[in-house]
Amino acid sequence: MEQMTYSMPRIGDRAPDFKAVTTQGNLQFSEFNKNHWVILFSHPADFTPVCTTELSAFAKDKEWFARHNTKLIGLSIDSIHSHLAWVQNVRERTGVFMDFPIIADLDMQVAHKYGMLHPGASSTAAVRAVFFVDPKGIIRLIMYYPLNVGRNMEEIKRVLEALQTADKYSVAMPVNWVRGEKVIVPPPKNIDEMEERLSNQSYEKVDFYLVKKELQDDPVLSN
Length: 223
Prior knowledge:
Elements: E1 19-22, E2 25-28, H1 29-33, E3 37-42, H2 49-60, H3 62-67, E4 70-76, H4 80-94, E5 102-104, H5 109-113, E6 128-133, E7 139-145, H6 153-169, E8 183-184, H7 191-199, E9 204-207, E10 210-213
Parallel strand pairs: 3-4, 4-5
Antiparallel strand pairs: 1-2, 3-6, 6-7, 8-10, 9-10
């Protein structure tokens, strides 16, 4: 049988829809994603050390993500029975309950759709991919990590807040931006915007093309 091939999704693409069996039951991704941000992340295998530290970290921060209107969903090319046994093992050994859905992608259909299989790394295990999908179902940011390097949870949380803040205020973020710091004012599109930019005394003007400002409030980004 000829193997199905898929193009790797890119930033700005609509997230490929799928149906899957998960530790939380059967799931249709487009319904799961509706009105929420989603972080979809893959791991190489259950009962492995790096993956255990990573998914435990996601579980510990689940409430933080919920406050940011964001759902978590994991994936690996393991059976549902393996997933459930691993979830229970981690809860018994560490007290951490990975109670977000984890996809059992035995036929690799989701992994292929999302470009999670990199033959140079492994043909039978998904790399550590992270997809940020907005409430409209659009992929906004993608991260890839090799099998032997764990992800940085603080960076995942930082870029989620950056994406949500950029959307809410129509601004951009400078290097190393974290919530509470100044943001970048987009370039003017007409003379009125240019005049306002030049006359606004609250702006930090490095030069005409690089202007920063403080946000007037510290919103709960899920609002």
